[in-house]
Automatic annotation (TrEMBL):
InterPro entries: T4/T6SS_DotU, T4/T6SS_DotU_sf. Residues 36-218 form the Type IV / VI secretion system DotU domain. This is Type IV / VI secretion system protein, DotU family.
Length: 225
């Protein structure tokens, strides 16, 4: 499996047929990382990064349901990996909150289903997770070895721009920075000089559905903090 680099082709937003939409937004779950949570979430994280730049351009109507389907598939995949039910729920909660924050914070199409029902409402019957994610994080950091993969996933979401309660409280940016550094140090101690975790794509899929826009490794994350 070959690691891919940045793809500068824009996400198609006009003249898209139903078949094209299905092809462009269908998510494969594959990879060879040291962290199955990050590995499984890679396509959805790539979607977030690619669509952040779309501004108010309309999204395909099918995208919301496709993301719902993919989250369900990820959940089933993580169950086969032996993760605790509580860890999977916390992972899903964080992922939904991160995607919702991006979807609702970048002026995406007012007709988009995200404005009618967020992912957090769909999966957890809650309207805003910006506070609870950090409450979860506080508890998880109390058992870093047990929840290492989940903590690494949350750390990655921070690196990709998730801010939650700190997004609406700019005066607390110093508080977020301190939390970020503390998490960084905790995970750095756990991961050490382990081989890198790579967010990548299948080399055979050349028509490039959304993807994370660069080669990203745990080493890049932890040694740059």
């Amino acid at each position: 499996m070959k690691t891919e680099t940045i793809n500068d082709n824009p996400v198609p937003t006009q003249g898209v047929t139903d078949n094209t939409v299905h092809f462009q937004y269908q998510l494969p779950l594959r990879g060879e990382s040291l962290n199955p949570m990050i590995d499984a979430a890679t396509p959805l994280l790539g979607m977030v990064m690619r669509l952040k730049d779309m501004g108010e351009q309309p999204l395909p109507d099918q995208l919301y349901q496709q993301v719902v389907t993919d989250i369900q598939a990820i959940e089933q995949l993580l169950q086969t990996k032996g993760y605790e039910p509580g860890a999977i729920i916390s992972f899903r909660y964080t992922l939904c909150t991160f995607i919702d924050e991006t979807a609702l914070g970048h002026g995406w199409n007012s007709k988009n289903e995200w404005l009618q029902q967020s992912l957090l409402v769909r999966f957890h019957n809650e309207t805003w997770g910006g506070e609870k994610v950090f409450q979860l994080l506080d508890r998880l950091m109390g058992e870093p070895q047990r929840y290492q993969h989940l903590l690494e996933f949350i750390y990655l979401c921070f690196c990709l721009g998730y801010r939650g309660r700190y997004k609406v409280a700019s005066q607390k940016s110093d508080d977020f920075e301190r939390l970020f550094r503390r998490l960084h140090q905790q995970l750095h101690a756990l991961r050490g000089e382990a081989p890198p975790i790579i967010l990548h794509n299948n080399a055979n899929e050349r028509n490039d559905r959304y993807r994370l826009g660069k080669r990203l490794t745990i080493k890049h994350l932890f040694w740059s903090g």
